[in-house]
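Attaching the record inline, Q. Sequence:
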Amino acid sequence: MTFSVTKSFLSTIGGLALDDSLIRNIEEPVNLYVKDGKFKGPQNSPIIWKNLFQQTSEWEGTLFDKPDIADRRKGKERQLQKPGTFWEYNDVRVNLTSYSLLQVWRKALPEVLKDRIMDPIGATDTWIWHGYNNSDVEIDGRMIKSVSGGGYWGGGMWICTWDQARFGYLFLRNGIWNNIQLISKDWIDAAMTQSKPEPTYGYMWWINTDGGIWEEAPHNSFAAIGGGRNVIWVWPKHDFLVVIRWIDPAKTGEFLGMMADAVIAK
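Structure, as predicted:
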């Protein structure tokens, strides 16, 4: 289980939707695409796709019996802010991102990931991506599971280290695999761009600019990070990536710094 590393896979499906023009513009309101009332009202109607991917949506509501307040990590009773102005790591809203992308793709997101990314990069057939017992959604007369963006409350992605390395390598290669552009470089560049409310966060990827995540690790690197300290760490400057599973969170930066020193010394 890889916990919130799953979020980086999820945002990649958003990038594919943009590449395919299923989403016309990341600055467009989500309510132009999701019309079942989840993005109605003064708080939710201004939310754009970019807000969902940066975790700055400040969406208010309940999804699959979980209210957003269940994961308001910066204060359950706080005043909600204008979408795009405040960053909060909130799995209810991440699951809303998955739900919204399901409305766009009209088919299961694991199927999209398999066809467009995992099979082309030679991933194994052992990975699996779960939703919740109550997260089935009717799409065009079929019931499809809306998958979760992490392991919070169950769900999430089970995947081997080798497959995660291949996924990281795709980003190290700017979206190219076997001379085929699987996902656009424009999306990857945008995904690794700092958000204004949280400079260490892009589109569900963590950015180590100025050592904001790990002071000991190179500052021109980025990572997918999940609970249990599961990490896909990518260092483009030296054409290097590392996948870590179950390391002491307090030692992660030190370990990556040692890896970087070894690469430079070589």
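The two ends are 33 Å apart (CA to CA). The longest helix spans residues 91-105.

More tomorrow.
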